[in-house]
TrEMBL record:
Major enzyme class: transferase
Protein name: Dihydrolipoamide acetyltransferase component of pyruvate dehydrogenase complex
Classification of source organism: Bacteria, Pseudomonadati, Pseudomonadota, Gammaproteobacteria, Lysobacterales
EC code(s) of this entry: 2.3.1.-
InterPro entries in the cross-refs: 2-oxoA_DH_lipoyl-BS, 2-oxoacid_DH_actylTfrase, 2-oxoacid_DH_E2_comp, Biotin_lipoyl, CAT-like_dom_sf, E3-bd_dom_sf, PSBD, Single_hybrid_motif
Domain (Peripheral subunit-binding (PSBD)) ranges: 161-198
CDD domains in UniProt: lipoyl_domain
Length: 462
C-alpha cells in the first residue's frame, strides 16, 4: 500500500492565519525531491517560496492560483518514495506542519503568547517585553529551516526562468514574462527586466505578437465591438426611466481580500477594538526656513525631538495588564501607500540619523516595499508611527494607532496661509499636524507638549 503523506500549510513565521497561492511549481503526478520548490505563497509581507517536505510523487494539490489557504490546512498530498532521501520525522524544519486545530482546541501551556498586531511591536501577554529571539520569519530570498537557509530557487514554469518574487511582480504589473527579454545569468528574468518591460510597454499581458502576413488570411475576421450604450434618464421611447435602489443583481462582484489588504483589515479592526484614540491638531509655521530643505527629514527630526521631550508617547502599552514600556531609542513606522495596500516599514534608530541618513534609509525602505523584497522583521517593532498623507491631499486627520504603540503623527498638505503678525498680516507657509494617541497610556497634557515640541523644532530656520 502506497505511503501517502499530507503536507499542511506551515506557519510562515509572520503570525498570519492564511496565505494566497501565487504559483505552483509542480502539477499533480510530478515527481519532486525533498526541499525543492513546491509553491509560492503570498502573505501580507512578501512572496514566500515553500519547499517540499518530502521526496516522492505529488498526488493532489489543495487550491488553485489565487486561492486563500488557511495556516494548518491541507496544501498537498504526496506518495512517498521509499528509496529517496526523506527528512527524519523528528527533524525540525523551523515551521509547524501539523493539521489545523479544531474549534475549542487548547494551545500548549508553554506556547509563546504575544499581544501585538503584526504591524506594531510585540509585548508578551504577561506585560513583559519578550527577550530577543531568532527571527524565523520567511521572506523573499530565504527560508529558514532549523539553522539552514534555502535560497530562493529559479523555476522554469511556462518555459520562463524566474524566481517567485519576479513572477509575483510581473503579475502585479500585468507583464507577460514570456515576452520579457532576460538579462540574468542563464537566461533568468530579473526584477529590473520586469520593470523595464513595464516602462517601455513591450510585454503587456494581452498584447498578442503580430502574425505572419501569409497566415493572417486563415483567421476569421471579427467585427470590431461597437461602443457601449450610454446611460440616460430617458428611455428609447422618450419616457422617464423608472429608478430604484440597486439590488443584488445590480451590484458589483464581491472580491476576496488577499495579502496586504487582508492583513490591513485585520489590523485596523484589532486597533479599533483595543485603543481609546484621541486626536489633537495644530499648524507648524515654516516661514523661518532658509533655502530648500528636505521636508520629510525635518518632519522626522521633529518627531525625534518630541519623543525625547515627552517619552510617554514613544512607548508601547499593554491594555490587558495595564503596563507600558518607554523606549530610549526612536524607531519610526513610516506609512507607505501602495496599490496592494498599506505597508509600515520601520525607520530604525531615527534618533541617531542625520538628514542624509534619513533620506537614504527611507529610499531603501520604499524600494524594498515596492518590489516586495522587504523583510518581515522590518515591518514590526517600531515605537511610534508617522503618516505623511499631505503629499497627496488633506490637512488634518485621525490616523489609526496600532497596538502596542501609543501614538501616530499625521502631516497634512502644506499651504500658504494668511497669519496675523505684529503690525499687520503676512502670508506664511505652514504644515498642518495631527497627533492621535491612546488616551489610556498618555494624558492630554503630554500629547499637547509633544505636539508643541514638534512645532517648535519645525519652526527653526534649519
Amino acid at each position: 500500500m502506497a505511503d501517502i503523506k499530507t503536507f499542511y500549510l506551515p506557519d510562515l513565521g509572520e503570525g498570519l492565519p492564511d496565505a494566497t497561492v501565487v504559483e505552483w511549481h509542480v502539477k499533480e503526478g510530478d515527481t519532486i525531491k525533498l526541499d525543492a520548490p513546491l509553491v509560492s505563497m503570498e502573505t501580507a509581507k512578501a512572496v514566500v517560496d515553500v519547499p517540499s517536505p518530502y521526496s516522492g510523487t505529488v498526488k493532489k494539490l489543495h487550491g488553485a492560483v489565487g486561492d486563500i489557504i488557511e495556516t494548518g490546512a491541507s496544501l498537498a498530498d504526496f506518495e512517498i518514495d521509499p528509496n529517496a532521501r526523506q527528512r527524519a520525522e523528528a527533524e525540525s524544519t523551523g515551521h509547524h506542519h501539523g493539521p489545523k486545530k479544531g474549534v475549542g482546541s487548547q494551545a500548549p501551556d508553554d506556547a509563546h503568547k504575544v499581544i501585538a498586531s503584526d504591524d506594531g511591536g510585540e509585548i508578551d501577554s504577561d506585560g513583559v517585553a519578550p527577550a530577543k529571539r531568532e527571527d524565523e520569519g520567511t521572506v523573499v530570498g530565504a527560508m529558514i529551516s532549523g539553522n539552514a537557509v534555502h535560497t530562493e530557487q529559479v523555476s522554469s514554469a511556462g518555459g520562463v526562468k524566474a524566481v517567485p518574487a519576479v513572477r509575483a511582480l510581473a503579475k502585479k504589473m500585468k507583464i507577460d514574462l514570456a515576452r520579457v527579454q532576460p538579462t540574468g545569468a542563464g537566461g533568468v528574468i530579473t526584477m529590473q527586466d520586469v520593470k523595464n518591460a513595464s516602462a517601455n510597454g513591450s510585454a503587456a499581458v494581452g498584447a498578442a505578437p503580430a502574425r505572419p502576413a501569409a497566415a493572417q488570411h486563415l483567421a476569421p475576421t471579427l467585427p470590431e465591438p461597437g461602443p457601449a450604450p450610454s446611460r440616460t434618464p430617458v428611455s428609447l421611447a422618450g419616457k422617464a426611466v423608472r429608478t430604484s435602489p440597486p439590488g443584488k443583481e445590480a451590484m458589483g462582484q464581491p472580491e476576496q481580500l488577499k495579502g496586504v489588504r487582508r492583513n490591513m483589515a485585520r489590523v485596523m479592526a484589532d486597533a479599533h477594538a483595543q485603543v481609546v484614540p484621541t486626536s489633537i491638531v495644530d499648524d507648524a509655521d515654516l516661514h523661518a526656513w532658509i533655502g530648500k530643505q528636505d521636508i520629510t527629514a525635518r518632519l522626522i527630526r521633529a518627531v525625534v525631538v518630541a519623543c525625547k521631550a515627552v517619552p510617554a508617547l514613544n512607548a508601547w502599552f499593554n491594555g490587558k495588564d495595564l503596563t507600558r514600556t518607554l523606549h530610549p531609542h526612536v524607531d519610526i513606522g513610516i506609512a507607505v501607500d501602495t496599490d496592494d495596500g498599506l505597508f509600515v516599514p520601520a525607520l530604525r534608530n531615527a534618533d541617531v540619523l542625520d538628514g542624509a541618513g534619513i533620506r537614504a534609509a527611507i529610499k531603501r525602505l520604499r524600494s524594498s516595499v515596492e518590489d516586495r523584497s522587504i523583510a518581515a522583521s522590518e515591518l514590526s517593532g517600531y515605537t511610534i508611527s508617522l503618516s505623511n498623507f499631505g503629499m497627496f491631499a488633506g490637512r488634518y486627520a485621525t490616523p489609526v494607532v496600532v497596538p502596542p504603540t501609543v501614538a501616530i503623527v499625521g502631516a497634512g498638505k502644506l499651504s500658504h496661509d494668511v497669519v496675523a503678525v505684529m503690525g499687520g498680516i503676512e502670508v506664511h507657509r505652514r504644515m498642518p499636524l495631527s497627533l492621535t494617541f491612546d488616551h489610556r497610556a498618555a494624558t492630554g497634557g503630554e500629547a499637547a507638549r509633544f505636539l508643541k515640541a514638534m512645532i517648535d523644532d519645525l519652526g527653526l530656520p534649519n
